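Journal club prep — side note

Before the paper discussion, L.F. wants everyone to see what a predicted structure for a comparable chain looks like in token form. Sequence:
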Amino acid sequence: MARINIHNMYRSLITYILWGVSILVFFPVAFILILLPEKMRRDNTFYHTWMAWWSKVIVRGTFINCTVYGRENLPQYPGQPSIIIMNHGSSLDIPAVAMELGNYPQVWISNDYSKKPLLGFILKRMHVMVSRAGLRNPLATIRSVYALTHNFDRHVCLFPEGRRYSDGDVHSFYAGYAVLAEMLDRPVVPMLLLGMHALFPKKSIVINTYKKNIVISIGKPIFRKNFATREEAVIIAEAQIDRQQDVLRALIYNPSSAEFWTARIEPTDTVTFVPTQVDLP
């Protein structure tokens, strides 16, 4: 066990060194770009490309394989701006998603990291930060995001669970993203991040280098207009991510299966809707 801990600590040290070097390389350019006027910085595709590269260095710097399914389901700029939702299990979730979004302008709804050096400054200039109290009264957040994205080709990215969970499961969603999808008339693109919670556990500074693989599964867009009620759209989005999780887990955690190396994952199969009472906040 001690040997495993030493190995993890050694690899984690290398990762932190790489992250430190990446800050020296990427942050000066990002800092200059986020000082630009609002219109110029928010829709600056070079800035978002630069941040996607930085995000890729952060994720790849953990030395863990990252497999992505369903990239074809992500709109390419300046195509259909969407509401991007994903489960939340690690502080590495944002860079993992950002590296896949590439140069597409995006507005993140994130927890309040305003007191974090560097990260807090970038988030305040480019995104919308929400405190725990704000989660209980989301109207102000919805208005802020609407103002930043209405009539603009900008994705809205958020964690509908409202917080980070360390068990690796997908938990119940708040309905705020469905309200935004309705107000902005945009599709919802569900993303599943599988294994992130084990790679960089909550309250840990050590990278779990024995986690062999993380998976990002991108589902087909869900259009609010295809459902009679907002509640139904919320249930469908949750069910689609749950189905992606079941399919991927069956593949990843059963390497002895005959289909392990040949199965083609289709995380976007149609789910069966069963009417259920949903309490919206």
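L.F.'s comment for the group: The first helix runs from residue 2 to 34. Keep this in mind when we get to the figures.
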